[in-house]
Amino acid sequence: MPQKMEKFLQIAPHSLAIVLAQREEERPAAVSHKLQHQHTGYEIFADFKAENMQHFWNKKVTDAISDTFFLGWIDEHVLLIQGKEDHLEVLREGWMRRALKPPRGFEIKYLGK
């Protein structure tokens, strides 16, 4: 009997991949292209944290966001973060409820392990 393939590949323990898409803004294409290349993965992560730290009415979300760390930036659209598993679960729930905000200029396409 063939073995069942794993559905997810875990890159790092207690990590979460946030797959982003560049939001098409009302700017000329040349300006938008130039701005996209000025951002580093860490800057995008810092903006993601800043956007979501404004959940002052939801202490679980602010605690979860404050305890996450930048792990990496892959393929210019995947933000890898690391944190406690219960905090990552709070972020997953927040995304399913459409309460998790993307970094400026992006939208969250989906989350992965």
Describe the structure.
By secondary structure, this protein is of the alpha+beta class. It has one domain (15-112). The protein has helices spanning 29-36, 41-52, 59-66, 85-96; strands at 15-22, 69-74, 78-82, 106-112. A 4-stranded antiparallel sheet has the order 2-3-1-4, with helices on one face. β2 and β3 (78-82) form a beta hairpin. α3 crosses α4 (85-96). The model is unreliable at 3-8 (pLDDT under 50). One of its GO terms (cellular component) is cytoplasm. GO terms for molecular function: RNA polymerase II transcription regulatory region sequence-specific DNA binding.
Topology diagram in text:
Blueprint: E1 15-22, H1 29-36, H2 41-52, H3 59-66, E2 69-74, E3 78-82, H4 85-96, E4 106-112
Antiparallel strand pairs: 1-3, 1-4, 2-3
InterPro entries: STOX1/2
Protein name: Si:ch211-51f19.1
GO cellular component, one term: nucleus
Number of helical stretches of at least 4 residues: 4
C-alpha geometry: globular
Percent strand equals 15-25%
Content-based structural category: alpha+beta
Helix content: 25-40%
Instruction: From the alpha carbons, calculate the radius of gyration and give it in angstroms.
Output: 15 Å
Count of spatially separate domains: 1
The total of beta strands comes to: 4
Uncertain parts: 3-8
Q: Walk across the major sheet and give the strand order.
A: 2-3-1-4
Q: What is the distance, rounded to the nearest whole angstrom, between the alpha carbons of the first and last residues?
A: 27 Å
Main sheet specs = 4 strands, antiparallel
Topology as a string of helices (H) and strands (E) = EHHHEEHE
Average pLDDT works out at 81
Protein name: Si:ch211-51f19.1
GO molecular function: RNA polymerase II transcription regulatory region sequence-specific DNA binding
InterPro entries: STOX1/2
GO biological process, one term: regulation of transcription by RNA polymerase II
